[in-house]
Amino acid sequence: MSSHITVVPASTQAGQETIRCLLKAKSKPSVRGIYRDPSKAPVEFTREPHFEAVQGDVATGAGLDFSNSVAVLYVPPPTYDGTDQGEFATRASSNVQNALQTAPSVKRLVLHSTMGAQYDHSIGMLRLNNIADRILKSAAPEVLIVKPGYYYENWLSALKSMKSEPPSFESPISPPDYHIPMVSVRDVGEYCADSLLDESTRPALRTVELFGPRLYSSLDVKRAIQEVNGKDGTLITIEKDKLVEFFARHVPKMYAQEFADMTTAMLPGGIMAGDFEPGENSVKGKLELGDVLRHMLSLI
Ligand SMILES: NC(=O)c1ccc[n+]([C@@H]2O[C@H](COP(=O)([O-])OP(=O)(O)OC[C@H]3O[C@@H](n4cnc5c(N)ncnc54)[C@H](OP(=O)(O)O)[C@@H]3O)[C@@H](O)[C@H]2O)c1
After folding, report:
1. Is residue 1 over pLDDT 50?
2. Closest Cα to atom 43, ligand 1: which residue?
3. Cα 1 to ligand 1 centroid, rounded to whole Å
4. Helices 185-197 and 13-24, interaxial angle, to 10°?
5. How confident is the model over 195-228, as pLDDT tens digits?
6. Does residue 8 fall inside a structural domain?
7. CA gap 184, 175 in Å, rounded
8. Per the structure, how many domains does the chain have?
9. Binding-site residues, ligand 1, Cβ < 6 A
C-alpha cells in the first residue's frame, strides 16, 4: 500500500496518538488530519513536511475528502451539544460512509470502536460505536474494527486530585477490587498506525480487541497513583445507584444516564462483565498503567 493516510477526527485522543506514530514511521507516509478547527493541530505535527491539517466535520460531512488516501482511521466522537447520541452517531457515520464511497483509492478503513460495541442494548454511551460499526462494516474493501478497553488516560483527573490536599479520587468502577480491561491510548495509537501502514491483503472484515498487559481495578489505580505521586490517598468508589449523580457533575446532565449505563454494563452483572478474558481476536498492549501515569504526571 503506498502511503497517503487520513485520520478523522484528528483531535480525538486515539487520532492524535495514531498520527504521532505515523509521523515516526520509517516509511514516512503522507498524513492528512481532518480537524473541525485545523488551528488545533499541534506544532509537533504541523512542522512535519509530510503532515497536512485540513478543515472538516463528521457532523455535517463538510471537508471529508479522502481522495488519494489508501487508508483512513475513523474515531467516532461523542457529542455533548444536546443532540441524541444515537442520532449523532448515525449522521456522522453516514457522512463518513458517503465520503468513502466517493474515494475509490481507499483500500482499508480502520474503525476505532470499543469493547462492548457488539451489544445493541444496555451499553449506554457505547451505542455510538454499535451504530458506527454497523453502518461502516463494509464501507471499504477492508474494514478493521479496533475495540479497546477503558483508556488509562481517563485517570488524569484522579492523578490531579491525588496531588491536592487531602489526596483522594473518585472511581465509578466498583467494588474496589473488581478488575476490568484497561489500555493506554498510546498502545491504541500504535496499533492503529501499524494497521494503517500494513500493506498485506487482509480479510474484508476483521475485529480486534485491545487489552492492556493485565486487567486493573480501582484499587490497582489507587496503588499506581500513590506510587508515582509518592504519597498515599483515599479511594472513593461510587456505588451503582449514585452513578447518574456522579456523572452529572462531569458531563452535561442530559448525557449522565448514558454514562451511568455504560459504566453499569462493565460492572458485576452488567452485559459486558463476562467478556474480560482475552480471546483469539485479542491483542495485548505493552504499556503498564503505572508507567503511563508517570508519563502523564510529567506533563501536568
Ligand atoms: N475514552 C475511553 O476510555 C474509550 C475507550 C474505548 C473506546 N472509546 C471510544 O473512543 C471514541 C472517542 O471517545 P472519547 O470520549 O475518548 O473522545 P476523544 O477521543 O476525547 O475525542 C473527542 C473529540 O472529538 C472531536 N470532534 C471532532 N469532530 C467532532 C464533532 N463533530 N462533534 C464532537 N466532537 C468532535 C472533538 O475535538 P475538537 O473539539 O478539537 O474538535 C472532541 O474533543 C468513542 O467512540 C469512544 O466510545 C473511548
Report:
1. no
2. 12
3. 28
4. 50
5. 999 999 999 999 999 999 999 999 999 999 999 9
6. yes
7. 22
8. 1
9. 9, 11-14, 36, 40, 57-59, 75-79, 112, 114, 126, 128-129, 148, 150-151, 154
> What is the CATH classification number for the domain harbouring 23?
3.40.50.720
Give, for 131, the enclosing helix (H) or strand (E). helix 127-136
Band of pLDDT at residue 300, cut at 50, 70 and 90: confident
Residue 48 belongs to domain spanning: 4-151+184-211+276-286
Please report whether residue 157 resides in a domain: no
Across residues 174-202, what is the average pLDDT? 97
In this structure, is residue 270 part of a structural domain? no
233, three cell numbers? 490517598
Structural domain contains residue 291: no
**78 CA from centroid of ligand 1 (Å):** 5
Tracing cell 486515539 back to the chain, one arrives at 14
* Cell numbers given for 62: 463538510
**Whether 159 contacts 300, CB under 8 Å:** yes
pLDDT tens profile 94-143: 999 999 999 999 999 999 999 999 999 999 999 999 999 999 999 999 99
CA-to-CA distance for 198 and 48, rounded, in angstroms? 22
Is the Cβ–Cβ distance between 173 and 216 less than 8 Å? no
Amino acid type, 190:
E
Read off the C-alpha cell for 94: 453516514
